[in-house]
Queue: 2 jobs
Job 1
Amino acid sequence: MGVRVACVAQRPRSTEDEDTVVTEKAAEAVTEEPGRLRDWPVLQPWLSTAARVALAVVLAWAGWAKFTLPTYKQELSVEAYQLLPHGVAGPVGIGLPLAELLLAAFLLVGFATRFTAAVSALLMLVFIAAIISAWSRGLTIDCGCFGGGGQVAAGETRYLQEILRDIGFLALAVWITVWPRSRAALDNILLYRR
């Protein structure tokens, strides 16, 4: 048995025809998927605003809780991790709350948002690494993330919860770094004027 192949002559399509077909298909894709592509430009700035404000509140809370502690407790909180020399732990203990408060203020007003979020993400990675280090070395300390810090009883450590919490904060910082455009931000005036 033989197979017969029929040849059909077809007129060549111009590039204008192809462009029209592609444009029509793209328009159909947007209208066929309600809410998916069409709403992203509207939804993304609001999601970034929520992430920006949430991370600002967390950093402000953590920074203020540490800032209001006596200086020796700020230093003790950092020294408890046994990662930095004594001469460095003091300035870090005093400077960390100020850095957190500054990052919180920048995020809250939406100034240098991408850069501020990236620095916040790096800070969260440092916090996560420090907690993992303390846990793996068998230290029994309070993280000092929201004030306090120092030695605690063995049953009072909450390393896993602290790591998971900081991963959540890291996710907020990464979101803002990737999609920094948000509502009610100074960056809108300084960078995104139309």
Note: Residues 140 and 154 are 5 Å apart (CA to CA).
Job 2
Amino acid sequence: MAYLTTGHPHSPATFSRLILAIFLLLYTFPQPSSPSAENSIHDLLRSRGLPGGLLPKGVQSYSFSDDDGRLEVKLEGPCLTRFENRVYFESVVKANLTYGSLTGVVGLSQEELFLWLPVKDIIVDDPNSGLILFDIGVAHKQMSLSLFEYPPDCKSLQDHQGLRKNHVRKEKGFEALR
């Protein structure tokens, strides 16, 4: 027992104190913030009156400024998903986030009548209406909020390009057999 209290630098008591000091230091100082399960982009959207499923799964990181509402979301890469129509997300999506709206959206397009149109604003005026408004420049489109309840899976653009090549082969008929 006298060995534990001697203060010798290699004693078990000194080692225990060192571990305790490291543990206290790690949990006393604030850790750098990063999105986690408790603090995800989807939770941030919900806390601002928007559905959490506006952005897909696979968000690598995001930054948000409470001061001016600037939001920048980084995805694993460009990808496609489907709500009511096909939607294309670039690798980085930017917008101004205020309660109930994403305005000045950059990096998000929606397919309408075979055209890809940039989404400019996304607005939930009245959550009780069950509707969400998408401003696609030339028109406004209302959709059901329920479509955006859960974050969708988003297929990488490479996966869709492979499907497109196979689709073109099928359309060429006999030429594809050569």
Note: Strands lie at 59-64, 70-75, 79-82, 86-98, 101-112, 115-118, 121-123, 131-135, 140-144, 155-156.
